[in-house]
């Protein structure tokens, strides 16, 4: 560091106020007003290093420069103790291809990835196992997905919603973007970003991107699903209309539990523009599914997000205890209640369900018209199916991202039965029929006070029944049937004077930072 001088710009001349300039004499230093670079150090990541200190003694006559070389200690716990890889301290000159070394360079750098580490680091390069050879293709969460030429593109909006193709798709990061792209009929065949080839031409390393489906949208907005997805449709001009331009792309990536991508598919929406169009809106989406699993939408990560459905399931038959939760049989594995209809007729509302949304207290219902001809037992079963649905779940996910195999992350639903004292004169003998379902979801804030996560800890379902007696012949009676959901926050309030980051006065063991020096 004593020989380094970043302010020495003039050759064989003294730079003004550059106290480390070797071209400056004592007479020059006496005219300086300050040192433009008071300290010169090397790599600040080192645990200990030399530092050159420059200053001016203005009380001396004439003023003179003071130079000190000291040992500077890095206060950081994690620092570099020794630089044992000398090649990293400087840039090595790359080899220029010649007729003699071309084949060797091609073999070293022709693959999509290659090692920048020296050969001396590989203790046994010849005995590399097949599993090690595929280590490059294994991803961690958020790592950009590599293709043969660069990264898998997922265009995103920048600068007033215009599309930028520089946004890479991250592994296991579900994204959905919309942006605007400038187009014209005359040049639509030359714009790469509106062609199917732009999105499927690059393979994800060893995996080719296949076309899963193609939907064609007409100028009036009508969609048509093509029977064959193998046909590559490129933009072309037909009667002053550019057809087959990409309006939307949806990627679906299948991966293993080791982080290897084994399949990639793309679904397209192709459209048309006329000569008046100056821009189009494109939509892009990417989703991930682990192999041999059924994709289920999440309702938070990890805690529930207000407004997203409460996830539910049931225990498979034949197990004495739940080894894996099977998601509910509705479309997305959600907890549902009776959905109100416009005519309020309970018998016409059978099968209509609405998902229970986390944090939303809900009430729904209908009216049941009872006649003297109705039988007690069929009516009771019909009302139970109406309130609970065909398959009422047994478990509710405690977190928005609880997995089916994590049984302890699922909360059992506790059932209660109550009876009202009201008596309707309908049947000859008393008949108990259910008239309401009340679901109470108790949740708490879990984790850090800075970013608490919503966690469901208890769910109860209470069926309330009432007694009916026989009605005179020809008479009718209308009874209200209701369903309700209430969310209750049972989080314990913070104690007075509680500090989020308490101070702990302890002495660390001597090997606390092992293996770091």
Automatic annotation (TrEMBL):
Residues 2-102 form the Tectonic-1-3 N-terminal domain. Keywords: Cilium biogenesis/degradation, Glycoprotein, Signal. GO terms for biological process: cilium assembly; protein localization to ciliary transition zone. Pfam families: DUF1619_N, TCTN_DUF1619. One of its GO terms (cellular component) is MKS complex. The keyword Glycoprotein applies. Transmembrane segments: none annotated. It comes from the Eukaryota. Residues 138-291, 300-489 form the Tectonic-1-3 domain. The keyword Protein transport does not apply. Belongs to the tectonic family. Part of the tectonic-like complex (also named B9 complex). This is TECT1 protein. It comes from Rissa tridactyla.
């Amino acid at each position: 560091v004593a020989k380094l001088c970043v302010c020495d710009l003039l050759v064989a001349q003294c730079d003004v106020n550059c106290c480390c300039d070797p071209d400056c004499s004592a007479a020059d230093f006496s005219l300086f007003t300050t040192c433009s670079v008071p300290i010169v150090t090397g790599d600040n990541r080192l645990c200990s290093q030399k530092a050159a200190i420059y200053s001016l003694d203005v009380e001396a006559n004439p003023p003179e420069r003071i130079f000190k070389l000291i040992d500077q200690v890095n206060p950081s716990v994690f620092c570099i103790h020794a630089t044992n890889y000398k090649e990293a301290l400087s840039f090595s000159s790359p080899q220029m291809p010649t007729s003699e070394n071309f084949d060797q360079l091609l073999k070293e750098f022709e693959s999509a990835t290659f090692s920048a580490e020296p050969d001396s680091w590989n203790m046994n390069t010849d005995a590399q196992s097949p599993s090690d050879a595929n280590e490059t293709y294994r991803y961690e969460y958020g790592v950009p997905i590599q293709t043969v030429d660069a990264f898998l593109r997922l265009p995103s909006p920048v600068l007033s919603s215009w599309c930028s193709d520089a946004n890479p798709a991250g592994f296991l990061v579900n994204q959905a973007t919309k942006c605007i792209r400038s187009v014209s009929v005359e040049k639509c065949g030359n714009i790469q970003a509106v062609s199917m080839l732009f999105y499927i031409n690059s393979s994800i390393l060893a995996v080719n991107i296949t076309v899963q489906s193609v939907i064609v949208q007409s100028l009036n907005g009508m969609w048509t699903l093509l029977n064959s997805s193998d046909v590559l449709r490129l933009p072309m001009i037909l009667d002053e209309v550019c057809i087959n331009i990409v309006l939307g792309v949806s990627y679906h990536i299948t991966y293993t539990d080791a982080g290897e991508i084994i399949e990639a598919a793309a679904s397209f929406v192709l459209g048309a523009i006329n000569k008046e169009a100056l821009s189009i809106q494109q939509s892009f989406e990417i989703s991930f599914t682990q192999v041999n699993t059924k994709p289920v939408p999440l309702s938070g990560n990890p805690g529930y997000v207000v407004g997203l459905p409460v996830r539910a399931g049931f225990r498979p038959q034949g197990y004495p205890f739940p080894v894996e939760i099977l998601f509910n049989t509705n479309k997305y594995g959600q907890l549902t209640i009776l959905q109100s209809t416009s005519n309020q007729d309970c018998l016409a509302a059978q099968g209509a369900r609405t998902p229970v949304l986390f944090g939303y207290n809900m009430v729904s219902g209908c009216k049941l018209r009872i006649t003297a001809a109705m039988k007690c037992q069929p009516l009771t079963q019909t009302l139970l199916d109406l309130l609970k649905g065909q398959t009422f779940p047994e478990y509710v996910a405690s977190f928005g991202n609880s997995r089916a195999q994590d049984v302890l992350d699922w909360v059992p639903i506790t059932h209660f039965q109550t009876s009202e004292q009201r008596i309707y004169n309908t049947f000859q003998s008393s008949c108990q029929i259910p008239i309401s379902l009340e679901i109470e979801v108790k949740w708490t804030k879990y984790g850090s006070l800075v970013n608490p996560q919503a966690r469901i800890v208890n769910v109860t379902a209470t069926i309330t029944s009432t007694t009916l007696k026989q009605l005179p012949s020809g008479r009718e009676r209308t009874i209200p049937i209701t369903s309700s959901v209430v969310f209750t926050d049972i989080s314990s309030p913070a104690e007075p004077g509680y500090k989020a980051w308490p101070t702990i006065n302890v002495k660390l063991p001597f090997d606390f930072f092992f293996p770091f020096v």
